[in-house]
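Issue 218. Parser rejects a valid record. Input:
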Amino acid sequence: MEREFTPGALRALAAAATWQYGEGSGGLRLVSILMGLLAEPECRAAMILRELGISEELLLAHWPELHRSAEPPPIPLESPPQFHPEVKSLFTAVDLYMDWGDWPPIISTEHLLLGLAGCEHPVADWLREQGLNFTQLRQQILQRYGTGGQWRSASQEAVGGQIEALPSPGEEESIFSPEVGHAQIKPSASCEPPEEERLRREEPPADSRTTSSDEAKKEDAVSKLTVSTAMGLYRIVDAAINRALEGLRVVEDYVRFVLDDPFLVGELKDIRHAFSRLAGEFPMAYRLAARETQTDVGTRIKHSHEMKRESVEGLLDANLSRVREAIRSVEECAKVLQPELAERFEQLRYRCYTLHRAIRITELSRERLQNARLYVLVDARPSPDEFQALITSLVEAGVHVIQLREKTLEDRLLLERARIARKITRGTQTLFIMNDRPDLAVLSQADGVHVGQEELTVKDVRALVGPDMLIGVSTHDIEQARQAVLDGANYIGCGPTFPSSTKQFSHFPGLEFLRQVASEITLPAFAIGGINESNIDAVLKTGIFRVAVSAAVVDAPDPPGAAKRLLAKLQGTPTR
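Output the parser choked on:
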């Protein structure tokens, strides 16, 4: 029989594969699966086990032959590992009690626990000794997932009941606190024999018959859903989940194969996997039962621009918008079907907004700074004339970016120098950047402003300078560099690489930091700190092909000559 597994079940089985029973192999053993369920702490099976006081330590004490595998097999997330022959009894028990009918079995962590408790094996005996009630567990699963026979028809008559919330602990005995608010199919009376019915209706413990008013309200809201309404909501959820995953895959492929940006690809993968895990909380059996692609009126409605993208940017924007809209649809339906999930979907949606900005700014910044290799930081010089002469010589030498960094001059004089630099660089290939002062950058009409970790944030600077001005951020470790990308910086300075005569540092991230940045971030990054003609080759070997210098040019006997020699070193380096 072909089986599918929920994401949580696959993670539990992957964790189980890291445990070995005795010295033999031959596949995954039953006791290893029990250990794997405990290793997936947020799954319902683990919650049940821990409420019974069952822990990894208890298992190891009872089965001392169980130990970590020295070489656990590689387990792809999409498929389960190889099972030992004894595990057949687990699936036999699940099939016997779940009544799949013609429906393809979809195994959750609860189903795995049910099989462990219902099979003919010492593991089942031990679980019963620990207090696990097989009948109650089965009833919980039936109430949560229904059976294959119940889902073969979407009609209320065939289902044999109406949509209702999980019963509260006060209505029937519970082996764990059910997640209130998830719409379920009420099992028909024929789902259980008289003996099981009698056991199920025994008086529950007094301390399990309470529920909060909020939970009661959620139960009441869901219990009022008709079958057709609940099926409609699951149809929305199914379509929206599929749209979101499709859109995320398109964006991920674009960032991977067009931008070739490992950090942004990693962020997208993280969002996609987090979304998939959350989506897995909606049972696939419900989603498939609600799916009606052949009769969906939306498949026959086409917008004139739907099959055409005007630009690559349009492709990216359209798919990211599609993802956000789809997540919002799931989020809204979750407020009715599973309210505890709604906020988590909301947070993922916000992450998509942030990532959309980061991807587009990275793309635009790479284009705008494509040819920028040499970045020179200059001070105000003793006089305006000396400053003007220096800026003119550097522009004529072909320097790509000039930053005015001066900490001692009063504001009026500093603005005067900035306007001189702007006048000289305007209309040339040289960009003018103001250090630390977004106000003076605006007044002098600079191309951008650069800030450090202790200065204004990118958010605050952007509020002052508007959408078009470049914003650079100094970074001193890989986490700061990653954060600058997500914050919307146009470029980053990475260092200090070597000791510098113009600025004192107690810590030098050095060349290793440059290697880290080069290996995962494609936002324009300039190595800075003590770089000169004698060590620039070591910098270039890290994969960073942009450098920011000060003393190596400004304090040289021939500043334009020094700049030209550095430019010669940088000539022909990759444009990333």
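Fixed in the parser; the record now loads. Confidence is low (pLDDT under 50) at residues 148-212.
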